[in-house]
């Protein structure tokens, strides 16, 4: 899976799954645009990529702000003239039971996780259509398929991403643009490491392979879907969850 000459834009690239996706694509030869609100962390990832001999550009981007997305995409296009691959990874949680959930907790998560992906896709699609090539990968979640208490806002946003994936996949398929989703399960990241030990044990008991996944394992799934070899796969949700949810 050679990515030489390809340009990838990854949101939420400063840490976790986004960082792993950036490194995996750079390893395979892509030039990578790293987008996040955390400029200092982005610079550290960019240095990792440059040590591989690849090029990276950092973009300070808030996906909850459409103007920020427009400015970020413009910077990438000024640098490389095109975007071949978009990985919509940026996301937040504001967990609460629905009975107690404040409107701003609902709206903030939907605006970031779902609206952000919509705006990113809409900004990169015209160029992909003109060049008749593109790969879009949206990072959703196992809970979007299986449900989970206390996460109605997060689950609605991630389930919405699955619907968005399928709708856009149909619209652009004849332009040699694929749109797919990856649904990670219980992945070893900074976010999951903060969970109480008893909660982690309970979740692990639901995973047939008996362990957390790694951000690298998710990134390799993303890299496959972003490759030319995956050109006949579109509208698909790739589950990377150790068997936690099967459908």
Account of the protein in words:
The chain has 247 residues and is α/β, with parallel strands linked by helices. It has a single domain, classed as NAD(P)-binding Rossmann-like Domain (Rossmann fold, 3-Layer(aba) Sandwich), CATH 3.40.50. It has nine helices and seven strands. The protein has helices spanning 16-27, 39-51, 66-80, 103-131, 143-146, 152-172, 190-193, 197-204, 215-225; strands spanning 7-11, 31-36, 56-60, 85-88, 134-139, 177-184, 237-240. A seven-stranded parallel β-sheet has the order 3-2-1-4-5-6-7, sandwiched between helices. Strand 1, helix 1 and strand 2 form a beta-alpha-beta unit. Helix 1 packs across helix 9 (215-225) and helix 4 (103-131) packs parallel to helix 6 (152-172). The longest helix has 29 residues, at 103-131. The chain is globular and about 50 Å long. The protein starts with 6 loop residues before the first strand and ends in a 7-residue tail after the last strand. The model has no long low-confidence stretch (mean pLDDT 96).
What is the CATH topology?
Rossmann fold
- The helix content is 40-55%
Total separate domains: 1
The largest sheet has its strands arranged as 3-2-1-4-5-6-7
The class by helix and strand makeup works out as: alpha/beta
Low-confidence stretches: none
Number of E-state strands: 7
Question: Could you name the CATH homologous superfamily?
Answer: NAD(P)-binding Rossmann-like Domain
Assign the CATH class.
Answer: Alpha Beta
Q: Supply the number of helical segments.
A: 9
How confident is the prediction overall: mean pLDDT?
Answer: 96
- Shape category: globular
- How much beta, percentage-wise? 15-25%
| Rg calc | 17 Å
Largest sheet: 7 strands, parallel
CATH architectural group: 3-Layer(aba) Sandwich
Along the chain, the helix and strand elements come as: EHEHEHEHEHHEHHHE
Distance between the termini: 28 Å
């Amino acid at each position: 899976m050679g990515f030489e000459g390809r340009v990838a834009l990854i949101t939420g690239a400063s840490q976790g799954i986004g960082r792993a996706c950036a490194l995996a694509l750079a390893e395979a030869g892509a030039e990578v645009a790293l987008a996040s609100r955390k400029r200092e962390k982005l610079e550290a990832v960019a240095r990792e990529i440059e040590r591989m001999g690849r090029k990276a550009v950092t973009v300070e981007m808030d996906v909850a702000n459409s103007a920020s997305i427009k400015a970020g995409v413009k910077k990438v296009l000024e640098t490389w003239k095109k975007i071949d691959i978009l990985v919509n990874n940026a996301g937040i949680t504001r967990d609460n039971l629905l009975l107690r959930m404040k409107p701003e907790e609902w709206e903030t998560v939907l605006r970031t996780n779902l609206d952000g992906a919509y705006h990113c896709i809409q900004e990169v699609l015209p160029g992909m259509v003109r060049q008749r090539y593109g790969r879009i990968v949206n990072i959703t979640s196992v809970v979007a398929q299986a449900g989970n208490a206390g996460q109605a806002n997060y689950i609605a946003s991630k389930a919405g991403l699955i619907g968005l994936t399928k709708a856009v996949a149909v619209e652009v398929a004849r332009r040699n643009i694929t749109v797919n989703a990856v649904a990670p399960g219980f992945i070893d990241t900074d976010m999951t490491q903060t969970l109480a030990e008893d909660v982690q044990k309970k979740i692990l008991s639901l995973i047939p392979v008996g362990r957390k996944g790694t951000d690298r394992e998710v990134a390799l799934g993303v890299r496959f879907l972003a490759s030319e070899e995956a050109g006949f796969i579109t509208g698909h949700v790739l589950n990377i969850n150790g068997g936690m949810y099967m459908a």
